[in-house]
């Protein structure tokens, strides 16, 4: 046995002796000398201490809470076997005792004894909890409450009243009776149910306490479940339907039409909020303002209330528009109704681009352009909408000062049907700066023959039509002028001339390469290697004989690096018209 326990046992023997002699004042003094809670695991010792303390407090006229605290610990299962058999009857009679001298009750009517103040987990003579049977109800509907109670007392508590304390939206607490004249039977789980009617203009209720009333004395147990209930306005019968366009288009505000249809109810408001993670929503086509907490006053029954908002996306994607709305009446908000509206945004036009050099030869994708050179960009379109469109204007705006665009070759306006194709050719020249950049921003102003998308729209697209929308501009090393005859006669000699100048600061070794073909007979070698000093010009003539007639494509001519033949400085595949040979 530990020294501390030995001391407490010796002290308890002295206290018990004074207690039996009726010297309660001395008992009270001695009890305060020890920390009895530290020996709570010694059930017989701790039970005797609590019993003596409860008796001491019972003799005082104003220590009801302290008496209740000590006595109920004595009644818990761990300590009850060590308490006199008559203790429970004495405990229960304390709620009914009346002074013979003053004729006043020892525990006055409506005294509140708070069980939740106990810090001792062993104080479990009654296990109680209460909850609402629903999470929400409509106004004027009864609210069902359930209380569960389990007793470990040796006998029943007769003629008790079961109640609950409920806190409303305004933090007002009210006591509601659940059951009267109940016998709290031990070793049995008792379930009590009842319906309550809260005050008007209340939207939320929280069940805070379960109350057991014995002869007008309230034993208050803190509810464990923290049960809450939401009171909604009576079902308004309001319904929502949405009208969406079949497809949304990039850079065009898509109108969404909502229709709230009411029934016989009126005199309330609909509160609507609209959200979208991957697009912009706004109440006007200019896409200003937001769509949060839009209020629609319903002042007439059996009526349709319409509202239109717009969704805007600068990228082609699939979005989900989220609607949240609820009914509000007399300060009460109904449950939130959530609805998702899927909408796909597409490009109004599908775009492809091809770049040609000054000899009308296609520049392969990924091949750098050259500084101080002339090019043309062929922009091909196909209409991607399900409605006819009219192209009103077509413009390419440079994104860098290093590129200068000429006016596009296109006839405007153009009326097009769905899936129709059209194209525009635009010449441009590069400056002297070496960089990696986009060519420019294409802007098409168009009208869509649709009642959904009215008015003029602008479609913007960054050129060229590649994944990165970027192209490199490298420094020009060779300036090439190409003289090619536009026509000739079959079997008669033709001649072309290529003028080449080295405009770099270092010597360059080049190879003039001409592909072999069965349509033309080349006079001379197909491969010629030449060395050029800076600013050194040279003329490269080439003679050939056409062997066929008609519009013929000349075999590809290229100027490549002698050190790296795969590096091409310049190439061309011109077209020539060859007539029949002249009559002899």
Protein described:
This is Trafficking protein particle complex subunit 11 C-terminal domain-containing protein. InterPro entries: TRAPPC11_C. Pfam families: Gryzun-like (PF12742). This protein has 584 residues and is mainly β. The chain has 5 domains: 115 residues, no CATH class; 107 residues, Immunoglobulin-like, CATH 2.60.40.10; 108 residues, Immunoglobulins (Immunoglobulin-like), CATH 2.60.40.10; 126 residues, Gamma-adaptin ear (GAE) domain (Immunoglobulin-like); 102 residues, Immunoglobulins (Immunoglobulin-like, Sandwich), CATH 2.60.40. The chain is 10% helix and 47% strand. Strands 1, 3, 5, 6, 8, 9 and 10 form a 7-stranded mixed sheet that branches. Strands 12, 14, 16, 18, 19 and 20 form a 6-stranded mixed sheet that branches. The N and C termini lie far apart (141 Å). The model has no long low-confidence stretch (mean pLDDT 84).
Secondary-structure map with pairings?
Blueprint: H1 3-20, H2 24-31, H3 43-58, H4 64-74, H5 87-93, E1 112-114, E2 126-132, E3 136-138, E4 143-151, E5 157-168, E6 173-184, E7 189-196, E8 204-214, E9 217-222, E10 228-232, E11 239-243, E12 248-249, E13 254-261, E14 268-275, E15 280-282, E16 294-298, E17 304-312, E18 318-329, E19 332-333, E20 337-346, E21 349-357, E22 362-363, E23 369-370, E24 374-383, E25 389-398, E26 403-405, E27 414-416, E28 421-430, E29 435-437, E30 440-448, E31 456-463, E32 471-474, E33 478-483, E34 487-489, E35 494-502, E36 508-514, E37 520-523, E38 527-532, E39 537-546, E40 550-553, E41 557-561, E42 568-572, E43 575-579
Parallel strand pairs: 1-9, 3-10, 12-20, 23-32, 34-43
Antiparallel strand pairs: 2-4, 4-7, 5-6, 5-8, 8-9, 8-10, 11-13, 13-17, 14-16, 14-18, 15-17, 18-19, 18-20, 21-22, 21-24, 24-28, 25-27, 25-30, 26-28, 29-32, 30-31, 33-35, 35-39, 36-38, 36-41, 37-39, 40-43, 41-42
Helix pairs in contact: 1-2, 1-3, 2-3, 3-4
Domain Trafficking protein particle complex subunit 11 C-terminal: 506-559
Protein name: Trafficking protein particle complex subunit 11 C-terminal domain-containing protein
Organism: Tritrichomonas foetus
